[in-house]
Design a protein that fits this description.
By secondary structure, the protein is mainly beta. Helix content is about 15%, strand content about 45%.
Length: about 260
């Protein structure tokens, strides 16, 4: 379906791999229930808003423009959400199926509002963005599915406390990015960068720390390590190793002198 002007569809829709192409500057709002075994694909540089509780089971794909998941169950029972271009904006709790794999291949996963959102495994195939502008709560991934060797993840507008204790943005309402299973995450921390703005105010790279929340198993949260702190830690470690080596050498020298 192509929308060349802003419109609202309020009736029930059964999809068999439906593609909505929305032109630039236009907004198509689908408030009726979307069901069926097919999926939903968003094309065009305009905006598609899914504002109803849906039950379709096929994949959700965003290739360009913006798809707004604006209600609980907005993306139905999709088990795969593919963001290859443009942006998926989540503005409601449980808009995405908890088991849905999130495949970032050059697009933006954005969240705005105050809620917790649990999803499935994160797969990163090319440079992509998680934008937390206006978001307060928890984005919880089940773990990492796969991570492309040359793929980097930028987390924009992060709000929280860095490893050094520096508080960033509106830290009274922090945005937590959490992984239930850290397998596949640890080796890719150097490919994750935090920004206080939209790719401008670099904060640092990722560091893992434990995160607990009532009703959930203890998970791994990623927080920012400011660049100066990285250097400071390295210097402290080197100084500590130097002092230890000096003391060891001195002790051995004194022991030899005592034996003679």
């Amino acid at each position: 379906m192509q929308a060349s002007q802003s419109a609202t569809l309020s009736g029930a829709i059964t999809v068999n791999n439906a593609t909505w192409e929305v032109d630039s500057g236009d907004t198509l709002t689908v408030s009726g229930a979307v069901s069926g075994s097919g999926g939903v694909t968003k094309n065009g540089t305009g905006t598609l808003v899914l504002s109803g509780s849906n039950s379709y089971t096929g994949a959700t794909a965003v290739n360009s423009g913006t798809l707004v998941a604006g209600a609980t169950n907005a993306l139905g029972n999709s088990t795969a959400v593919d963001i290859y271009g443009g942006s998926l904006l989540v503005t409601a709790d449980n808009a995405i199926n908890d088991a849905a794999a999130i495949n970032l291949g050059g697009g933006v996963l954005a969240l705005s509002g105050t809620f917790d959102e649990s999803v499935g495994l994160l797969t990163l195939s090319s440079n992509s963005v998680i934008n937390l502008d206006g978001f307060s709560g928890v984005l919880r991934f089940g773990g990492v599915g796969s991570w492309g060797s040359g793929a980097n993840l930028a987390i924009w507008n992060w709000s929280g406390t860095t490893l050094s204790g520096t508080q960033i943005n509106n830290y009274a309402n922090p945005s937590h990015v959490v992984f239930t299973d850290q397998t596949g995450l640890t080796g890719n921390l150097g490919k994750i960068s935090f920004f206080s703005g939209s790719g401008t105010g670099f904060i640092g790279n990722a560091f893992e720390q434990s995160f607990s929340q009532s009703g959930f198993a203890t998970s791994t949260e990623i927080i920012a390590v400011p660049e100066p702190e990285t250097y400071a830690v390295a210097v402290i470690l080197l100084l500590g190793l130097g002092i230890h080596a000096y003391r060891t050498h001195r002790r051995r020298t004194e022991q030899k002198q005592a034996q003679n």
